[in-house]
Amino acid sequence: MALDIKSLVPCIDGSTITREEFHNTYLKPQKPVVLRGLWKKYPAYEKWTMDFFKKSMGNIEVGLFGNRKEDISKTLEVPNATMRFDEYLNLIEREPTDLRLFLFPVFKHKPELLKDFDYPEITKGYIKIPFMFFGPPKSIVRMHQDIDMSNVFLTQFHGRKRVVLFAPDQSDLLYRLPFNVHSIVDVDHPDYKTFPGLKYVKGMTTILEHGDTLFMPSGYWHHIEYLEGGFGLSVRTVANSLNMKLQGAWSLGGRRLIDRMMRNLMKEEKWFDFKKKVAHSRAEKAMSKLNRDNYENEFRSSNTVTT
Q: Of the CATH numbers 3.30.300.180, 3.30.930.10, 2.60.120.650, 3.40.50.720, which one belongs to the domain with range 4-255?
């Protein structure tokens, strides 16, 4: 049985939406949306191609990340391999591999590229540290939250991506690891026996193509599959709520520091096993609360009908 992810992320014309419309309909209520053509007026829309990056910065050495089987938290810190940038771009155009290039500070290497775009006027509060993401066909970015809990605008420039989203209030049912921003479940092959909390979750799906910008509100879980080799860029704005701002600060500071310290103090396998046990315990509590709430609602409804 597949996860309940049949709902589609709304898709609208991003070139005509006003700041007021975006704020009232999507930003304030924290609802995901695909904004088509939001970046059409910027040179990057047509200029940024695979060939452009091969020719302009192909000699840069890049760190690449795959889907490790051990502690998921290490994905953010230790690359699996290094390669010349142009060789990597040739690779992802040519064949499947699990090696991805993410949080790539391309503008640190080539700052003049900052002139190729601007920050869309539909909102404010941008964190002006953009990052690029590159991946091969069929590669998977395991489900996670962005560590700073910011609002994210993810724009696709080449190739197609499938994105699955879950709201942050489903974190426990998604078996979020403590001291981490990753889930231990497989969205495409859900194991309901091991992870029964997945029976309760509901997500949304979209396919991003060239020029599409996905607005992901603060704390949204996202699972990404590269349907074709390609790349995109993300820009962020600060989280709306104080709670999300505090969560982001905790993730960037205390949470990550404690996780790294415990990996050093304990054997990594033991620490990872402990975190998985905590994730299962939280999911059990969340399921119990949902079942109790459902029972109470049904009880109230039956009494109302009888009365």
A: 2.60.120.650
